[in-house]
Amino acid sequence: MNKHVVEQTVIFFSVSKWLLLSSAVGIMIGGLISLFLKILSLAEQTRETLPFPYYFTLPFALMLSLWIVRTFDKNAAGHGTEKVIEAVHKRDGYINAKIIPVKLLATVITIFSGGSVGKEGPGAQLGAGAASFVATLLKFSKSDRRKLVICGISAGFASVFGTPIAGAIFGIEVLIIGVIMYDVLLPSFIAGFAAFTTAQFLGVKYHYYDINVYRAFDLDFSLILQVVAAGIFFGIVSDLFITSVNKIETWMKKIPYNIYIKAFVAGCIMVIISYFLSENYLGLGLLSIRDALSPNALISSNVHWYDFIFKTIFTSLTLGAGGSGGIITPVFYVGATSGAVFGDVLGHHVALFAALGFVSVLAGTTNSPIASIIMAVELFGVHMANYAALSVVIAFLITGHRSIFQSQKLALKKADNISIGEGTDLDDTPISIDMRDIDKVKRLKSRLRYKRLRWQVKNAKDDFK
Hints:
The protein is mainly α. The chain has helices spanning 3-45, 58-72, 81-90, 99-112, 120-137, 142-161, 164-173, 185-201, 221-254, 259-276, 286-293, 297-300, 307-320, 328-346, 350-366, 369-380, 385-398, 435-464; strands spanning 176-177, 409-410, 418-420, 431-433.
């Protein structure tokens, strides 16, 4: 038989196999995520029945969430996505099915009480756990189980984000920095679309934004330069977010007190700040995100310059104290509010820069530029594509070889004269920089210090006169 015919026949059966598998898994995960989102929505609605501010329960909720995770499944700790990536790389996608109820319960408790976490990480973990359960039940090979679990990740993200294409791409792009796994691209798309469609059918509502800016594609050099500057700013914000979350979590682990006491104290700190300053940093923070993205100047003015700083602190404390939930929604909050501040400083296009921050900080903190650009189009419209692509890629590069997900594999160096250990975990990757570049940076710092000193001397002489 003709070799080409044999090849096409094998490909046809492979595509058919994964078309059926990914569709079935996507529908199952869409139903599971719908249940999760409805339980979460119901829990948030019951806050109004309390005779006191709901966030007064936060110290006790963090202790309870910590106890549930430590007692029933420690893999349900933290923001979820990290453990899923680790399972794909180190356990061929195997995830114990008991993580599904544990993660769901711990996340609902944390978000109900005002813990600063998101719902997408648990969504990915629920989706991956369900896919792993099906693969194990049907006795799939390790490679097929791994592939199906990746489909589960994409389906979980797609059905929580409300962006089926970006969610599917994010699920595979977040695994290895600089590599998209094309062998699982089609199944991930199918699973993501099936999950998203199922969630919509079951009544899940998604919010999309119309920021009403620059629908024409006229070349605007002034705006392009501002977007470049914004990309650099968002890269710095991403780096600060990663540093804060990692440092505070490490610092809290080193405090020589009982973990439940530390969780209670962290909760009390957030309660005090919320009571005397603002409640905007609690929970998902979706109202603040919508304010930042509003084209109405009166609404966007509700965003303060320090909002993204406090949100970073609240997220770090929540996760460091043992709260369970995702980290992407806080990333959206930090990106949108810091973007609104950037636009406010420039004096115009606040909603545009808030939208750019929304996707650029996502790209910077998770190393997922392709998914972030597609998300900008799905959430804000095709007119955003040019500006989003520019800002997203710059933020992705400026953040460097860092990520909020330390289990990511590294397969891309972001600049010349930098050597990396390709294929290693991000937290174990040896990164070396050419000594000539280090010397250049040192000389630049010396020149800046010299110019600053001259400026201070000149001002002192002027004051003396």
